Amino acid sequence: MKQTIHDVEGTMEEKAVLVSLVTNELKRTDFSSEYSLQELVNLAETAGVEVLETMVQNKESADTKWFIGKGKVEELKMMLTELGGNTAIFDQELSGAQVRNLEEALDVKIIDRTQLILDIFAQRAKTREGILQVELAQLSYLLPRLSGQGKNLSRLGGGIGTRGPGESKLEMDRRHIRERISELKRQLQEVVRHRTLHRERRKKAGIFQVALVGYTNAGKSTILRQLTNADVYVENQLFATLDPTSRSLELPGGKEIVMTDTVGFIQNLPHDLVAAFRATLEEVCEADLVLHVVDSSSPMRSEQMKVVGDVLQELGAHGKEQITVFNKIDLCGAAELEMLTADSDSVRVSAYNNADLERLTFAIQEKLLGDTKTFRIPADRGDLIAKLYRIGDVLEQEAEEESLLFKVRVNADDYAKSGYMLTAYELDRTAVPSQNAEDGTGTVEVFDR
């Protein structure tokens, strides 16, 4: 049995009935209401809540006062009384007024999906950066709902919806909360500045950045640990890891890259959370390559992939060079494997299979280092030779009388950034440098042979 914060404090454990409202609008979404409710059960259990029962209501639209129908509220009250529940968790986001009305009618703590996810993040945050980001998200969520927080603010014993900033902060008035939000944003801007400096140093050193993204519990942390021997927490639960972890990895050709594990995505990921974690998620935007890790065994695989794609679109990282990593193929049947995409932009793996991981590293290398080119460099041009080693993977080197012959696998973007200086020495091209080409101020006309 899971130990919750309530066990430690000696107070009553949270026991909840989970409620889902299936509206016409919800029926038009990609996720089925049954899957969404099951995901809510997993979220609640991850937060340390004992799930007593689930309740579903089909209704054309949400009730502005109660969210669910008045009759359903009475039914929920009886169910909570009979089962000894002290919390009701809703699968959709509630307004402040709806929370207040439901609390008065049910006399239990009312939590919505967003608050539940924020609570899990509060439990998972360990680093200073993670704690700052969670607090910012919680306060941003709380600010417009202060008038609807009624008994939630006065209930003792903490629990879901009250972790993170702490009760004292939740009771601050709007002005103090706004001041705290401003301070958190300032501190996170400093985090962004440090991250930017680190990224610039890596780029100057010619080190590639690879970001792992995916739906929560797809296996990103497991892949990072297996590839790099990283000491990261791995568990079969939602949002097992929160704080981003970066580790170096040497590719088969000897090139060193940096891999970063990012926070997992989920359907209806709170907007405040995406905004608060932008400093972390910017790692995805700045990455040279994105590994989209997919749980191949999930019956909602396609829908989960769409959620990740939508979040990447929101971050402005949708057009990034990407490899889809279909993970957990050891849990798939033959029919499921047949349905997985098979092309140069995807790899099927089991994170615990060394041969699969080796294929993945070769795929990463191919994407990052790109085409193979041959260069003849004058022996006295050490600067150009060093540049070749920085932008690519030198496969072969052969000495001639007054020059060196290099066969190099190079990334297209890095090669383009190198300008005419290397293009002029490409073996399969004839380049005519201008008068000032050597000092970097001229232009080069390049003709195919």
UniProtKB/TrEMBL annotation:
The keyword Nucleotide-binding applies. Mg(2+) binds at S221, T241. The keyword Aminoacyl-tRNA synthetase does not apply. One of its GO terms (molecular function) is ribosome binding. Monomer. Associates with the 50S ribosomal subunit. GTPase that associates with the 50S ribosomal subunit and may have a role during protein synthesis or ribosome biogenesis. This is GTPase HflX.
